[in-house]
Design goal:
Elements: H1 15-28, E1 34-35, H2 47-58, H3 71-85, E2 94-97, H4 100-111, E3 117-122, H5 127-134, E4 138-143, H6 154-160, E5 165-171, H7 183-194, E6 200-204, E7 229-234, E8 247-250, H8 253-266, H9 272-283, H10 287-308, E9 323-324, E10 335-336, E11 339-340, H11 344-355, E12 357-358, E13 360-361, E14 371-374, H12 379-394
Parallel strand pairs: 1-12, 3-4, 3-5, 5-6, 6-7
Antiparallel strand pairs: 2-8, 7-8, 9-14, 10-11, 13-14
């Protein structure tokens, strides 16, 4: 028997990918699945970005690029950060990667040593903890309540910090809850961090544009923290460019240099054509992304009402991203055809196989009483999904 590396035992396959895989398998059998498991915009990439990619091919941008990305692309990221966030960076502080997930991996591998503690407020995106485990760091989850809209409080943060704390990781807007931190809320956290200068911060801002409550606020805006913050962003969510695979980080120069070194041994640079298209995305106007956000807002209202009308569900209207995260614990202990539903994972399997609707268990996000529902789908499919969800839950007694 082949002896695989021990590190594989530290991590698990993301539940988000697992549910998408199961949905595809059932679809391949001819079963119609209302798939609300995957976090992918259903829109096509805007036409002007696609045209930029075609132009790049015709102009011969088909060769290796610098590991960190083309110089003019890194300058485009600098431009974007100044225009949208009021933040000053240099191209040397920008590393472009094959998706924001690689950017996060680069940052975690650049920062975390074995035994370092990493604070992650939950619910959280599934990959954060697995990357920390790969680096032999110690994950310290801080559960956030629905009463506080699933956001960590300064008091919780202070209580979680120890002399071993090296890193804090969070997202705003948040996957899976849609929570968005206000400027005041970030300022309160910044006050805590100011008392603990050894702690670095990874701020995942990939859902930046999908914000329904106002201007996006970055924790890097606070001067005393900027040199301790790694901003993660990319094109997948705001520009509907999931398959293009481009993310980036903006970081203190030492971390950027470290990320460049790590990436050089894993993938080198991301796709040259994608990089040329990204320049157009980052420097152009935001008409197309904002049109998508307007559509997401309509879908949010529809799904929120539909979920609110289902007896037993407890749901918040999200402030950003494109997920609902209802509490489904009222259905634990119910049964269908003699089979008892004990937790959210079993509920998701029941909904998939009996109601033919795919959602993700909250256990994946350290919130076992909830499920994640993506409304990044057409209104027609969302209506069908909500109908099946209501009918499926209604059969549980």
């Amino acid at each position: 028997m082949t002896q695989l590396a021990e590190r594989l035992s530290r991590i698990s396959e993301p539940e988000t990918i697992k549910m998408a895989k199961l949905s595809r398998e059932l679809k391949a059998q001819g079963i119609d699945i209302a798939d609300m498991s995957i976090g992918e915009p259903d829109f096509d990439t805007p036409a002007h970005i696609r045209e930029a990619a075609k132009k790049a091919i015709d102009e011969g941008y088909t060769h290796y690029t610098p590991v960190a990305g083309y110089a003019d692309l890194r300058q485009a990221v600098v431009h974007k950060l100044k225009r949208d966030n009021g933040l000053e960076y240099t191209p040397e502080q920008i590393i472009v990667s094959t998706g924001a997930k690689q950017s996060i991996a680069n940052a975690v591998m650049s920062i975390v040593n074995p035994g370092d503690e990493v604070i992650i407020p939950t619910p959280y995106w599934v990959t954060y903890s697995e990357l920390v485990k790969l680096c032999q760091g110690i994950v310290k989850f801080v559960p956030c309540s629905i009463e506080n809209r699933y956001k960590i409080t300064p008091e919780q943060l202070e209580a979680a910090i120890t002399p071993k704390t090296k890193l804090f990781m969070f997202s705003s807007p948040c996957n899976p809850t849609g929570a968005v931190y206000s400027k005041d809320e970030l300022a309160a956290l910044a006050t805590v961090f100011a008392r603990h200068p050894q702690i670095l911060i990874i701020a995942d801002e990939i859902y930046e544009y999908i914000n329904y409550v106002g201007k996006h606020e970055s924790i890097a805006q606070f001067g005393e923290l900027k040199d301790r913050v790694v901003i993660i962003n990319g094109l997948s969510k705001g520009f509907a460019m999931t398959g293009w695979r481009l993310g980036y980080l903006a970081a203190p120069a030492a971390i950027a240099k470290a990320a460049d070194k790590i990436q050089s041994q894993f993938t080198s640079a991301t796709c040259s054509i994608t990089q040329r298209a990204a320049i157009t995305a980052l420097t152009g106007d935001l008409t197309a992304p904002m049109a998508m956000v307007a559509e997401f807002k309509e879908r949010r209202a529809f799904v929120y009402k539909a979920l609110s009308d289902i007896p037993g569900l407890k749901v918040l209207e999200p402030e950003g991203a494109f997920y609902m995260f209802p509490d489904v614990s009222a259905f634990f202990g119910t049964a269908y055809e003699g089979n008892t539903i004990n937790n959210a994972t079993e509920l998701c399997m029941y909904l998939l196989h009996k109601a033919h609707v795919s959602v993700v268990t909250g256990a994946a996000f350290q919130q076992p009483g909830c499920v994640r529902i993506s409304y990044a789908n057409s209104m027609e499919r969302l209506a069908e999904g909500m109908k099946r969800l209501a009918e499926g839950l209604g059969k549980l007694k």
